[in-house]
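Entry 14. Ran structure prediction on the chain below.
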Amino acid sequence: MKRKVLVFGASGEIGGRIARGCVDAGHQVIGVTRGTNQRACVNLSGVEMVHGDKHDEAFLRDTVAKLDFDAVIDSVPTLDGLRMYHRHLGKAQNLLICSSTGTFVPLQYFPADEEHPWREETPVNFHNQSVRDAHALSLWESDGFPVTILRPTNIIGPDRVPLELWGGRNIEFFRRLKAGSEVAIPPCTEVLIQSGSNSDLASAFVKALDVPEAVRGEIFIISCKRAITLGRYLQAAKEFLNSSSKIRVVSPEELTKLYPDILWRWGLEFLMEHMSFDISKAERILGYQPRKTTEEGLCDALQWCETTGLL
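Output, structure tokens:
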């Protein structure tokens, strides 16, 4: 099934991969970008580019709405943006948006699936995304607005610094590993993590275009096949970097004192939450087949960090 696809953020890390995948699958693709990303992540040949701000309602109404498309993809959606899409892009047969499995935490069972509770605010979940997703589904239920929500786990791969064991994406963690310096971490080595590569995430969006009726009003978890421990994750990073670093486990309170230059946010608490998810719904309905494990995605990301001079 060949579609006419509108991709917001087509020059970005995820949006660019989605646009590239759509073109490769034979779809006609229009990419919308503000043009602020000066480093395209992928080859965008074959993508017709339109420049403008998706948050500008006049641009959506007067330019985007008049384009020829039957599917819309937004990998970084906002609540206000969804409301504007509902007002002006109603001719779309499908609207595919990206969310996060961070809406589900803390997990009540392993592996968690799409039926896991997610609408209530918890001390660690991504509640703003939960509010947005709930609104999107309410539009589907009230008037058939054809939304589909893809929820990736921790995104990993080239073009982004990988998650570290301080709860963020601070390249300094991996620089210390590469230099063989001692690295302190919180007591997290038995915590489960499940990552998904950015290329696999993009492939899920492309596959969803082939089953337009089956995906409307649905949520899909997108990730690799299974979780590993953060201890194994750390070991994979050390092996790739040929690191001789001594790892010292300390309390979160001591950790923040050891590294006063790190901007400590709530990410450390989130890091301590188990991440283990069931992707069988995406496999069954989308035909989704992840190609990367968490370890492989991590090594791809670290290779990119080295190639670009970050490491």
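The chain has twelve helices and 13 strands. Will compare against last week's run tomorrow.
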